[in-house]
Amino acid sequence: MTISDILLALKFWWWGVLLAVLVAAVPTFAIADGRDPLYESSGRYVLAPAALENPNDVVDATGTLDGSSLVATFSEILESTSARTAVRIALDLDERDIAQYEVDAAVIPEALAVEFFVIGPKPELTRIVAEQLAVAAAADFEALYPVYRAQLITAPAEEAVARPSNALRDALLAGIAAGAVAVVVVVSLDRRRRQRWELAPVTTVRVESGDAPSGGAPGVRAPD
C-alpha cells in the first residue's frame, strides 16, 4: 500500500473513513466524559540511615543505600498487596472498596526519594488512603531494613486534587485507530474497483445504414 493508493482511495471513499472516525470517536468521548471524576493524593519519602551508635555502621548503611536498590524496594512496598491489605484493615474497608484505589510510585534516585500517588473516586477517602499507605509502607520498610528510616518529607495534602478528564484523548486515539483501519479497508476496496474497470472489455461497433448481404460483414454492401 503506497501513498498514491491511499490518495486514490480517499478521492472515492473519503466519506467512509470520516464515518468510521466519527463512529469510534463520538461514543468513546461520551462514555469517557460521563465517568465519575478521579482524585489524586500524593506524598514523598526520603530514605536515610537510622541514628546508629557506631559511626562505622552509619558509613556501611550509607554505602548500602547508594549501592543497592533500596529506593526501588520501598517503591515496590508502596505498591504491594501487603501495604494495601494493611490500609484496608486499618480503615475497615471491603475488598471492593480498596480495589477502587490505584497506587503508583516513582523513584527519584538522585535524592534517594520515592514519590507515591493514590488515585480514587472519593476525594476524602483518597487522602485518607494515602496517609494510611504512607504509615504502612514505612513500617514494612523499617521492619525489613532496621538500619534505615523512611522519612515522610511531603505529606498528602489536606484535599485530594481532581485529575483532568481523559475523554478528549481517548476519543482522539479511538478515532485515529478507526481511521487507520478504515484506510486499509477502503484501499483494498478501491483496488478491486479499479481492477474491474481495467479488466472490463471496451468495444466500439460502427454500423452503416443498409442491410448486409447474407454471409457478408455487417455494414458492408455487396457489389452490384
Structure characteristics:
elongated; 16% strand; 224 residues
SSE order in H/E notation?
HEHHHHEEHEEH
Q: What distance separates the N and C termini?
A: 63 Å
* DSSP helix fraction: 55-70%
Q: Give the CA-based shape.
A: elongated
Largest sheet report = 5 strands, antiparallel
Average pLDDT value? 77
- What portion of the residues fall into strands of 2 or more residues? 15-25%
Q: What would you report as the Rg, rounded to the nearest angstrom?
A: 36 Å
By DSSP (H or I, 4+ residues per run), the number of helices equals 7
Number of strands: 5
Class inferred from helices and paired strands: alpha+beta
- The low-confidence runs, each spanning 5 or more residues with pLDDT under 50, are none
Question: What would you say this structure looks like, in words?
Answer:
The chain is of the alpha+beta class and 224 residues long. 55% of the residues lie in helices and 16% in strands. The protein is built from 7 helices and 5 strands, in the order H-E-H-H-H-H-E-E-H-E-E-H. Strand 2 (102-108) and strand 3 (113-120) form a beta hairpin. Helix 1 (3-33) packs antiparallel against helix 7 (167-199) and helix 4 (81-91) crosses helix 6 (123-144). The two termini are 63 Å apart. 23% of the residues are buried. The model has no long low-confidence stretch (mean pLDDT 77).
